Amino acid sequence: MKTPTAGDSSGFASLGLAAPLVAAVSALGYEEPTPIQREAIPVLLAGHDMLGQAATGTGKTAAFALPLLNKLSEDTKTNRGKARALVLVPTRELAMQVAEALHKYAKGSNLNVVPVYGGAPMDHQIRALRRGAEVVVGTPGRVLDHLRRQTLNLAAVEMLVLDEADEMLDMGFSEDIDLIVAETPKERQTALFAATFAPRILSIAGKHLKTPKKVQIAQEKRAPGKLPQVRQVAYIVGRGQKTGALSRILDFESPKSAIIFCRTRLEVDELTDTLNAHGYGAQALHGGMMQKQRDRVMQLFRSEKADILVATDVAARGLDIDHVSHVINYDLPTAPEVYVHRIGRTGRIGREGVAITLAAPREQRFLQYVERLTKQKVEIGKLPTEADLRKRRLEAAKDALRERIAAGGLDDTKELVESLAQEFELIDIAAAAVAMANDSADKTVVADVPLADERPSRSYDGPPRDDRGFDRAAARPARAPRDEGPMTLLRISVGKDESIRPADLVGAIAGEAKIPSGVIGAIKIHDDYSLVEIPDDVAQRVITALKRTQIRGHRVTVQSKPAR
Ligand code: AMP
After folding, report:
1. Which helix (H) or strand (E) holds 398?
2. What is the b/e burial string over 390-401, where b = at least 16 CB atoms within 10 angstroms of the residue's CB?
3. Which of the four, 144, 350, 461, 552, has the lowest number of CB atoms within 10 Å?
4. Spatial contact of 278 and 250, defined as CB atoms under 8 Å apart
5. Rounded to two decimals, what is the model's pTM?
6. CA 439 – ligand 1 centroid, Å
7. Atom 8 of ligand 1 has which residue's CA nearest to it?
8. How far apart (Å, rounded) are the C-alpha atoms in residues 473 and 462?
9. Rounded to whole angstroms, how far apart are CA atoms 371 and 351?
10. Which residue's alpha carbon is nearest to atom 5 within ligand 1?
């Protein structure tokens, strides 16, 4: 098998896709085809019907979307505006997601993609279909509705995709599918994707597919003895919570050295920026970087000057680093085998390693594949709470104190303690000393990104003081996350077009509004605007401050709404 050079998209070109599609995936930061893409794309480009086994997260959408668009782009004049491809999916969410992916891959192709799903106004969809849609992505019920109203005609369909067919059957769409397929021409090309090849899937394939080629990702056989012995934990988190969850995990685990895997170059860059803006020392590594830059990053990581490396699979391939304590799958790998490669970077030569995976609720099936392949349990973890973090911090302080006492040389300090002992109990003196040490450590780091489901509140007008005048915040352990109240989402009128980075936003907000940068939540930078979460109780102060200032030389407007 040809291994594409890291950094180009020759892997996609060598599958036979047209140049504009190769350019589209390259612009999205895809470095190489995933296993299902490598197998399925040539089969579909050759015009065969196909029965594919692939779960969510394997890159299956692009596996059918790219050949589909390739086929339609060959002649964009005939049947212009008519439905030439139909993708049936089980749910409204998937319809939106698949349509969005198709839309991105189809950029510049003159092909229109329209999603149709239940629960959304009919007239809007009818207008979109009337304007002309070569690719329709829909749920069976709603597609049938449109067929009955004659607002959709499938007589020109050249390609039909049944995505997540097993789920569609589970949801009772079997008859609807039959009725819809009957409206499409017999000579169409058909692809069916399901998570298993169960008998009922083979039966529906028998009905609607013509001598299909089966595409199944061969599972690498591994002797259990060869598998890395690492603790495997997965956290189930929704898309919007990933940064917050990662931050919690990093704080709790305090990895000596971690590799965080993302799927695309863009995600690597974004996550690196976000982590750095929140005070973690992260370096990016992907195929789009110059060799010299990559060498520099590797040098920093090897010499333990950077403790977090955020990388794509391609860029991290073949890296031989001994000291990785944690592998974190920020995005799921595209196949269980890739997972095994990733976690093989930790737990080397008898060292203890931890593999942590963030999976969306829909992606849990992947974890079962992993368990089967690795013959090891993947524990489903509960995200550490603030109390857990505090406990962990105090344990670390205890260890540090033990070491310090053993090291000796404390005579001067003992004198000080003795004199204070005239006034206070020894235990109070020791507790205050520990609290002060933790507090100063706290000031050198920035706390984490908030999670949606924790909402105690705290005012930021100053730390609470107890009745003896002690600063209770000082008793917080270092790097403990702040308490989290309700959050406000700010929409700030600058983004990538103005070369804005998370650090610019954090700097402007923290600096101008005089709030600790640790209270700033998730940041998302779009082309011409950015979204930043901040606690409700400082929102007005931040808005007023931002109106007075400039970010990277630009005056900004700010809009706000409750974060969730
Ligand atoms: P899917 O399995 O189709 O739901 O895809 C899961 C995710 O993988 C999506 O966010 C895609 O954008 C991403 N993806 C698909 N193909 C690739 C690839 N070749 N390289 C990197 N990311 C990909």
Report:
1. helix 386-407
2. bebbbebbeeee
3. 350
4. no
5. 0.67
6. 43
7. 59
8. 9
9. 21
10. 59
Q: Let me know if 202 is exposed, middle or buried by CB neighbors in 10 A (0-12, 13-18, 19+).
A: middle
Say what the pLDDT of residue 235 is.
96
Condensed to tens digits (0 to 9), the pLDDT of residues 408-437 reads 888 888 888 998 999 898 998 988 888 887
Those residues whose C-beta lies under 8 Å from the C-beta of residue 422, and which sit 6 or more positions away, are: none
φ, ψ for residue 326 (rounded to 5)?
A: -135, 135
| Run of H or E including 300 | helix 291-302
Q: Is 524 helix (H, G, I), strand (E, B) or coil?
A: strand
Centre of ligand 1 from the C-alpha of residue 239, in Å: 14
At position 260, the amino acid (one-letter code) is I
User: Do the Cβ atoms of 86 and 155 come closer than 8 Å?
Assistant: no
Instruction: Tell me the C-alpha distance between 334 and 56, whole Å.
Output: 9
CATH of domain 231-381: 3.40.50.300
Topology classification of domain 472-562: Alpha-Beta Plaits (3.30.70)
- For tokens 């709470």, name the residue: 385
List, in sequence order, every residue forming a beta bridge with 267; answer none if it has no partner: none
Backbone angles phi, psi at 87, to 5 degrees: -115, 120
Q: So where are the chain's domains? A: 12-216, 231-381, 386-442, 472-562
Q: Which residues line ligand 1 (CB under 6 A)?
A: 30, 33-34, 37, 56-62, 263-264
CB 254 within 8 A of CB 279: no
- Whether 12-216 shares its CATH topology with 472-562 is answered no
Residue 276 near residue 502, CB atoms below 8 Å: yes
What CATH number belongs to 12-216? 3.40.50.300
> What is the distance in A from the centroid of ligand 1 to the CA of 30?
8
- 59 CA to centre of ligand 1 in angstroms: 4
Given the CA of residue 55, which atom of ligand 1 is nearest to it? 2
Amino acid residing at 481: P
Task: Give residue-wise pLDDT tens across range 33-74.
Answer: 999 999 999 999 999 999 999 877 889 999 999 999 999 999
